[in-house]
## 1
Amino acid sequence: MARYESPSYTVLKSDGPFELRAYDAFSTSAYIGDDLSGKSGFPVLFNYISGRNETKQKISMTIPVINDFSLSQGSMEFVIPPSFHKEGIPKPVDERLTIKHYEPHKAVAVRFSGRINDKKIESYTDKLKAWCETNNIQTKGMVRLQRFNSPFSLPCLRHNEIVMMTD
């Protein structure tokens, strides 16, 4: 995993698979949709980083791939490498894509391995909320699923995370 760039953060508290983090600002290219299967948008996002953008510029693959969930729709997002300044990010030519900017923020995360499914997302979200309650940490906003490996990786070797922003 070390060969791919990812958002920068500082661990403020660590407890087994749980962490409280302070993230630096970062940006993503995001495909917004109502299909939360986890595969929606991947080809569109891959085309964007392969040069299908206003400047025809190739963008390095990064980690993690992010899914941001809400009740009616979610997103699949590729992190923009930190070498791109906010103003220099190539604009998408595909109208289904948008550029999202995450300001510096605190978040909690729980790591886990294996395949992703709705039951697992719900289970780890519940575990993260319980850990936050025990540690008097207030969460806000949507749940982010962060995946760090190729779908071809062995499930037992996959690094996944559920992340929620905090107050």
## 2
Amino acid sequence: MEYREAKPEDLPILNQMYLEVIQYMQETGNGIWDEVYPICMFGEDIQNHRMYAVTDRGRIVAAFALSDHHDGQSAVMWKDPEQTAVYLERLAVNVHEMKNGIGTAAISCAAKAAKQCGAETLRLFVVEDNQPAVRLYRKTGFQQAEGSFDEVIDETTTLHELGFEKNLLD
């Protein structure tokens, strides 16, 4: 498994992959994403060198974005808030590759990319109801931070998000 920065020419593949993930999520009762988000972020993510493609034999099998900040970063109690952190966002695994260890490999790639960005800690926020993702993060060594972040989407939707972190210095 390899990873690389996503390129503008990857957009059609990424858009299709995420649309299939969104459909799968909605079919399994996990309607956190929709046809607008996270796809609306990809152009900006690529332009700002934040989007990464995880490849297997040249095929994109997963993708993620890394950011140096998150709106909820001060809402939880991180183990060492002074450490340099990068935030993992928009992680998705191709639905045709699920249950093949791709999520674990993608997190490993994200940790390597975060280290290359100078991070000491990889952090993320995940909607509490997204139990498949919560299990994956725990399985791959993330520790839950105390507290939570309520992300207000609109007047009828607020996402209750948990913070997780993984020390990259170990």
